Amino acid sequence: MKPMSPEDHELEEASSAVSEFYRAVAQDEPAARLDAAIKAAARRDLAQPRHRHNWQRPASIAAMLVLGVSLVLVLRDNEPPLPSLERPTSEEAKLAKPAPAQLAMKAKPDSREQLRREDRPSRDRSARPDREPVARDELTAARENEIASGAAARSAPPAAGSVSPAEQQPSPIAEFAKLDAEKKSKAIADADGAPRASAKGLRKQESGVAAEPRTWLDEIDVLLRQGKEEAARRQLLEFRRQYPHYPLPDRFQALIAPAPAK
Amino acid sequence: MLPARLALVADEPVSDEQLMLRYRDGNAAAFDELYGRHRGGVFRYVLRQVGLRSAAEEVFQEIWMNIISSRARYRVEARFTTFLYHVAHNCVIDHFRRKTPLHLISLDDDADEAYQVAGPDRDRPERAVAMRQMAAKLLNALALLPPEQREVFLLHEEGGLTLEEIAGVTGTGRETAKSRLRYALTKLREGIEHEADVA
């Protein structure tokens, strides 16, 4: 306890003089009915069970859980797409390396759109954890570069005075790709009049994907290995009809060669 | 350990805090004892500030209802008196927020009821009259004090609070409380001495 200063002593003396007189005159008391009411209220409070607030704790825990789960779900649904996938095309073209001319064979007219569709953020991205964002970015750039060079090789006319590397060294494959594109556009334009392609080729055309001669030949090769010579021959005839200038291996040529006149 | 009821009647006085803890634990008699100790002081503390008896009774009841409802949460963190007058202080402030400004005690209103003087002097009519007049002057001087000084005086006088406790209840510093108390005492003493000289 702090010792009293002289000032406090003086205050105490002044207080005691006034206090004595005040106590003598101030005798007010609350009314008896008020005393009884307050005491009764105190007893009532004791009699009341204290379970009325018990629901508050579990209710608050449940509310917190619901809120937390909802927040997580909302955040997951509204997750922004990966920044590497939103890079503009011009930037991608700048960053992409020049592709070899052979890749033009694999180019597909609508591959760019397909790639974009694939690269859109998906809700079940977690189901494909093996696909790293950076790896996807590089893959996308490389594939789009292929598409760009393929399209340039096939459709864009060369500018006056400029000679493309493909023209400097014309390869039979690049030439064939050009013919292939022309043939396909003709087939689509004149779908009714044109003879029906093979089921697989037709499917590819309907789906907008160009038939790849090499793949087709591989499939024919598989048929031959399986001993389905007649089917292979039919496919090969169809192939020849579709791609009359495509160089065929000797064994395929022997298959469709007309029988020697007896 | 003695049962609560037996402890109440034991010779050693039980502290206010112990009584409140017993009431918290379900002992109604402990509350009666506690209430009996403080009912007068709290009532006068309210009455001197509020002015009208009816309003004072309303605030007084509100104070004790707050004490009752805080039973389950009660922990001994300070003297019970400090806690009680803190609640009283808040209830008085709430009353003034709800109502019109302070009603000063008028010497013409309820004079007979409010300023009765107890003691043997009552038997001597002339002395009793003088005392009544002095009491009236004192209470009038008290009513005319600034509200802050009046409250500090009442907390000191009715609640028996120290300067530190008064500072805690009123939310001021110790020196402020001390200054207010000094001013209040000076004015009240002047009122009494002046009346004594006249008598």
Key attributes of the depicted protein:
heterodimer; A: 262 residues; mainly alpha; 12 helices; B: 199 residues; 10 helices; 71% helix; globular
Polypeptide structure, described:
The complex is a heterodimer of chains A (262) and B (199). Chain A has 12 helices and no strands. Chain A is mainly α. Chain A is rod-shaped, with a radius of gyration of 45 Å. In chain A, helix 10 (213-225) packs antiparallel against helix 11. Chain B is globular. In chain B, helix 3 packs across helix 5 (80-98) and helix 8 (147-157) packs across helix 10. With 199 residues, chain B is mostly helical. Classes of the chains: A mainly alpha (262), B mainly alpha (199).
Helix-strand string of chain A: HHHHHHHHHHHH
Q: How helix-rich are the residues of chain A, as a percent range?
A: 55-70%
Strand content of chain A: under 5%
The number of strands of chain B is: 0
> Mean pLDDT score of chain B, rounded?
81
Number of helices of chain A: 12
Low-confidence region ranges of chain A: 99-109, 121-135, 152-167, 191-199, 201-210
Assign an overall shape of chain A: rod-shaped
Strand content of chain B is under 5%
Quick one: which chains have the greatest interface?
A-B, 29 and 43 residues
Structural class of chain A: mainly alpha
Number of strands of chain A: 0
